[in-house]
Amino acid sequence: MEGTYKVEENINFENFLRAMGVQDEESIQKMMQATKLVTLKQNADGTWTQETGLRTSTFPLNKEFEDSFGGKVATGLVTLEEGKMVKTYKIGDTTILTETLLLSDSTLTATLVTADGTQATRRMVRE
Length: 127
Hints:
Blueprint: E1 3-11, H1 13-19, H2 25-34, E2 37-42, E3 48-51, E4 56-59, E5 65-69, E6 72-81, E7 84-91, E8 94-104, E9 107-114, E10 119-126
């Protein structure tokens, strides 16, 4: 799963960003341009780091951690099993985002689902 991936296809990603609170078109376009490359790296301490043009986040596997979304603190939990990484973020008892990364050969597919059920898919290929 480690590697750098180039986004080849976005399905409903603009609506996903709106559902996550990004409302103006200029910001949406900037975010889409800034996230054309995604890098996943396993660190020596067992944590993982995900880098995009917008942010870098480091997280443990199978252990809750704090992260922020739109200025709000969320609790994250990431699992990894057989080429599938699932990231779940909650504020309180409400799941605000679930991201599933599935690796098949050199293609990484990210499926993102918001609290209201808005779903986006991003298909990426290994660089």
